[in-house]
Amino acid sequence: MKTFGGKVLFLDRSDINTDEIIPAKYLTEISKEALKPHMLEDLKIEGFDPCDPGLHEARVIVTKANFGCGSSREHAPWVFEINDINVVIASSFARIFRQNMFNCGMLAIELPEEAIDRLFKHKGTNANASLSVDFNNNRIAIESDKGSESFAYSLSAFDKALVEAGGWVEFADSKY
Amino acid sequence: MAMTLSEKIFASHLRDEPFPGTKVLSLDVVLCHEITTPIAVNDLVARGKDRVFDPSKIKVVIDHVTPAKDTKTALQGKILRDWSRRQGIRDFFDIGRNGVCHALFPEQGFIRPGYTVIMGDSHTCTHGAFGAFAAGVGTTDLEVGILKGVCAFREPKTIRVNVMGTAPEGVFAKDIILRIIKELTVKGATDCVVEFHGDVVRGLSMEGRMTLCNMAIEAGGTSGVCMPDEVTVDYLWPFIAADYRDKKAALADFRKWWSDEGCEYVKALDIDVSNLAPQVTYGYKPDEVKDAAELAGTAVDQVYIGSCTNGRLEDLRVAASYLKGRKIADTVRGIVSPATPKVFRDADEEGIIRIFMDAGFCVTNPTCGACLGMSNGVLAPGEVCASTTNRNFNGRMGKGGMVHLMSPATAAVTAIEGSIADPRKFAKGGR
């Protein structure tokens, strides 16, 4: 099983698509390693700098609605995985992106909008928010200079099994 | 119990339900292209599982970057080519026979009503136009599909879209689907199948229905779906004639997939197209849609006609009907990519290719081309493209570029004007 948690990257926008997460021109790569420098390269958010070296310290993404819409490219979870980001928390996900995350043994956690808003309260210039995941008890906890709080989340039995198995290939291969 | 088309397909293809609500379906066809498949193939090789579940059910094409543009894309093609040969996959479409996957595979008769179809490509929802459950998936789902012939889904809910009225001159399937996406929003159909009903849909050709279903994903939909009818039978007849006594028998068989009276829809949407104007996107999301007239005068640098949305013969025919005897503006680069070799050949025989060339268009080989900025037709920063494709995302056609989505008719008159224009103001065929 992968490790989950660490410094949070807040992406304050809905409908972030997979072209923004990893532009199509890099889909000619056939290794995950080659994707590494191009994470979120075309992301359109006021004030967001894809070249910020701090980006690569992030281990968790917290964002809004319909994250990962658009293309089916699994390069989107891969570019997160290769940058050690194994958790994305959003108020909703596009179907294919969400499935791709669990298929890779990664976590796509859906929380109600009000919980997302509370998580965003920890975003600040020097907030240095950090988030931990208690996978066995389905809880996340966030800590920053603005305080700490925790939230329960739910995962389907299938999603949980995929994370525990390390992904869909491992799960399917032992069963079908 | 009354069931929707996709519920019937799920019930008939259910292989396992490992957890409540998780349905593992057996697959009728697994489609592959050179962008998302090579990594799956390499992973299977690395795992010592270089096998396929059934080579006759795997269809392969090189379409996104063809001919190869550099060493990396040449390698993607080579991995796919070598794998297809090694695994005895006979339906492999290499250069000379290749075209845009979602135009080529239906044209080959590979998609049938009631089928389960996956591909590592989000626009796989196109194939639902045949009454199939067709879903785009990632590389891992594709890999398991190739190896085991199964894919897991949460059973989708179904949205019913009823398209009524009479489409005015200058209004086409693309305008209808852009309007539907505007209504549904980019996430309104997430985890749902979008069923298209109504007289307008029944009156569309398979090409038009594929344009509708193609963009279901832009509302977040798992698959678009049309009920298979006489039009479907006619389209597929060359491939199914041996299986049925006559077309009537085929239709009766296809009808068993139709959603039942009284089945459950999570949402119903009625669209009357009688007063619909040509539609154009204006922002970076496909639900940001306005009437073409509202954007009239917006200068464009490039016009692109092609893709899995609008690169079929009917699309080229419509565009040519406006371009005939006219020239595109000096300030515009016109590019047309017929979606398949058959589309190219038929368009050539009808004189359509000549019309495009005389108007000043560059005609490329069949390929995904400019649609996703991977090969040709990339925009420079600050440039604008009027495009018959499906996505206007930031950077989609090149960093800093802007894409306006529209129908082939609107794209054609925009090319002539040099700025976004309303096709209803243009007579067809100047001379």
Name the poorly predicted regions of chain A.
none
CATH class term of the largest domain in chain B: Alpha Beta
Distance between the termini of chain B: 58 Å
The shape of chain B, in one word, is globular
Low-confidence stretches of chain B: none
Structural commentary:
The complex is a heterodimer of chains A (about 180) and B (about 425). Chain A has 6 helices and 7 strands. Chain A starts with a strand and ends with a helix. Chain A is globular. Helices cover about 25% and strands about 20% of the residues of chain A. The model of chain A has no long low-confidence stretch (mean pLDDT about 95). Chain A is of the alpha/beta class and about 180 residues long. Chain A has a 7-stranded mixed beta sheet with strand order 4-3-2-1-5-6-7. Chain B has 2 domains: about 5-270, Aconitase, domain 3; about 280-425, Aconitase, domain 3. Chain B is an alpha/beta fold. In chain B, helix 2 links the parallel strand 3 and strand 4 (about 60). Chain B has 16 helices and 19 strands. The interface between A and B is large, with 42 and 59 residues.
Question: TL;DR of this structure?
Answer:
The complex is a heterodimer of chains A (176) and B (431). Chain A has 176 residues and is α/β, with parallel strands linked by helices. Helices cover 26% and strands 20% of the residues of chain A.
Notable traits:
heterodimer; A: 176 residues; alpha/beta; Aconitase, domain 4; seven-stranded mixed beta sheet; 26% helix; B: alpha/beta; Aconitase, domain 3; five-stranded parallel beta sheet; 16 helices
Topology (elements, then pairings):
The complex is a heterodimer of chains A (176) and B (431).
Chain A: E1 5-11, H1 18-21, E2 60-63, H2 75-82, E3 87-90, H3 95-103, E4 107-110, H4 113-120, E5 130-134, E6 139-144, E7 147-152, H5 157-165, H6 168-175
Parallel strand pairs in A: 1-2, 2-3, 3-4
Antiparallel strand pairs in A: 1-5, 5-6, 6-7
Chain B: H1 5-13, E1 14-19, E2 22-26, E3 29-33, H2 37-46, E4 58-61, H3 71-86, E5 92-93, H4 101-107, E6 116-119, E7 133-136, H5 139-148, E8 150-154, E9 157-164, H6 173-184, E10 192-197, H7 199-202, H8 206-214, E11 223-226, H9 230-240, H10 247-255, E12 267-272, E13 279-281, E14 289-291, H11 292-295, E15 302-305, H12 307-310, H13 313-323, E16 333-336, H14 341-349, H15 352-359, E17 361-363, E18 384-387, E19 402-405, H16 408-417
Parallel strand pairs in B: 3-4, 3-6, 4-5, 6-7, 9-10, 9-12, 10-11, 15-16, 15-18, 16-17, 18-19
Antiparallel strand pairs in B: 1-2, 2-8, 13-14
Helix pairs in contact in B: 2-3, 2-5, 6-8, 9-10, 13-15, 13-16
